[in-house]
What does this fold into?
Amino acid sequence: MSMREINFDGLVGPTHNYSGLAHGNVASMSHEGLVANPREAALQGLEKIKSLMDSGYAQGVLPPQQRPDLGALRELGFAGSDARVLARAADEAPQLLRAVCSASSMWTANAATVTPSVDAPDGRVHFTPANLQSSFHRYLEPTTTGRVLASIFADEACFAHHPALPATPAFSDEGAANHTRLAGEHGEPGVHLYVYGRQAFGGDGIAPRRYPARQTLEASQAVARQHGLGDAQTVFAQQHPEAIDAGVFHNDVIAVGNGPVLLYHERAFRDEQGTLDALRERMASPLIPVRVPVEAVSLDDAVASYLFNSQLLTNPDGTMTLVVPGECQEREAVWRCLQDHLLAGHNPISEVVVKDVKQSMRNGGGPACLRLRVALSEAERAAISGRVLLDDALHGELVAWVERHYRDRLAPADLADPALASETLTALDELTGILRLGSVYPFQLG
It folds into this structure.
């Protein structure tokens, strides 16, 4: 069975803005109120995936959410025409207006957790949309996310879709941002590392003090059960509370893995040695841990540069390429670590590629946040519906679509503009035609 990993990147939405909505995400909070450039953000994302496609890596795209979410505002008591709803929200509850205009679905690492068919008892690829209940602006996403995934992965013989977990604090689920699959190669049975910040029931009470822990152990266990994974296939590890308090709101800000390689910071896991031992015990192939000590890269530098929020990609010869944000070059300690510790070390990482995703980075999302990893067999790739696998023609159409519909300037005050809402619906309606997805948005369903 020829298994290949496809990185599905989320297209940046037309309402990309800097509202500072994510508590605990230092970059998001520190750039609150700045003027954003949605067009540049979307084009930066498209340039990244086009360059990776040109280098031989399989790429797909996922559409953004419908924003502003006027339905959510109406559920919260704002009535009248669209213009009236937007005006009242801007006047009476500007924080809610900012939330329903968030373009955070671009970070598809949060969209869902995926288990490949080689690991599932029924031989199908399993999907669970993340409930994202820890943040109101992201809690709005799972219904449309589930609809989009079901439209693309529609063949029930190949794909299984599960409901998002109950949207309660006990089952707070942030998707694949806290999930890493490790195996010798994509077609080999893998071990699933789920990283959580807190336990809802029981536990010893050790937790971060400054910022909230978003993922619960109970949520991770529930997703593993949905997908039919057993004890021999799973490791549940607690994220280090110090990392969360430094701004590591998800595990993918402090660790990244692919194949047998786990690149991680010394402060990634509360029980570093126990986590490594559990992975080694379960993996069929030897684990290759690549540890970055705090003396080389501080937690502050890790968060500011998003070194670990990089894409770790496997090459045909077994070597690996690390795709890092440009901010890694701006931190001397980080850049030195990349050159002297990673590239010069005894590990498969042989190349570092720098990408400019500044518009995303200012909102707290690096290259790894922008993609959902899906390992598929040849038959499963053939069963994908729609036109979401990137090629030159699709890339060209998406660039032209962005240039037609996206603004090059968007301040928080612009979110109340009724014209923006209208522009967005027009753009999304056209996008579903380009991607051949059918009706996936609320406004298309009536």
Remarks:
- Residues 60 and 368 are 14 Å apart (CA to CA).
- The domain at 4-67+102-445 is CATH 3.75.10.20 (L-arginine/glycine Amidinotransferase; Chain A).
- The mean pLDDT is 94.
- Residues 418-435 form the longest helix (18 residues).
